Amino acid sequence: MEAEKSLPQAKPLPPTFKKLIEELPGLINQEGPVAKRSDATGPDGDVVAFGDTSIREIEKLMEELRVARDYLRTEGERVRSINARYAHLTQTASASVKIIAESMGKWRVTEMEAAK
Fold first, then answer.
1. Residues 21, 61: contact at Cβ < 8 Å?
2. Cα–Cα dist 100/60, whole Å
3. Do 57 and 33 contact (CB within 8 A), yes or no?
4. Contact present, 46 and 38 (Cβ < 8 Å)
5. First to last CA, the chain
6. Which residues contact 106 (CB under 8 A, 6 or more apart)?
7. Cβ distance 71 to 17 under 8 Å?
8. How far apart are CA 49 and CA 108, in angstroms?
9. Averaged over 54-64, what is the pLDDT?
10. Does pTM surpass 0.85?
11. Which of 74, 69, 73, 59 is nearest to 17 (CA)?
């Protein structure tokens, strides 16, 4: 039981990761951000504003994906560590059972010889 207490605990999902999971379907299906009016007087100003908005949205999404990637890497390392500990524990338990079984087999042979 003491080994269970020393296992690394799962980290909670970062808020940006939760938000990304919730909003990702909507982000994929939307047609694009609406351009904000800029101070430019010509039609080119709307294109520039649209481009700036798009770039900011892409950069924000990239940062959220970086946070998600880091979270998943950390969780992957934690799971690998737990699996390695479990494999070691299983091997140790199997080796112990084998030693006990061999010892009990020797006792049985000795009892049978004594009964003859």
1. no
2. 60
3. yes
4. yes
5. 45
6. none
7. yes
8. 88
9. 91
10. no
11. 69
- What does the pLDDT read at residue 54? 87
> In this structure, which amino acid lies at residue 42?
G
Both structure tokens of 101 = 């079984």
Please give the Cα distance from 41 to 101 (Å, whole number).
89
Radius of gyration over every alpha carbon of the chain, rounded to an integer in angstroms: 31
Total residues belonging to the chain: 116
Tokens standing for 105?
């087999």
Cα 54 to Cα 62: distance, rounded to the nearest angstrom? 12
Scan for tokens 């140790």, then name that residue.
Answer: 92
Tokens read off for 6: 């020393």
Residue 70 tokens, joined: 């880091």
Report the distance separating Cα 35 and Cα 52, nearest Å.
Answer: 9
> Tell me, what amino acid is at 59?
E
Give the burial string for 40-50 (b: 16+ CB within 10 Å, else e).
eeeeeeeeebb
Task: Supply the DSSP string of 41-108, one letter for each residue.
Answer: -SHHHHHHHHHHHHHHHHHHHHHHHHHHHHHHHHHHHHHHHHHHHHHHHHHHHHHHHHHHHHHHHHHH
Can you give the pLDDT at residue 15?
A: 74
Return the ∠ at Cα 60 (arms to 40 and 11), rounded to 5°: 165
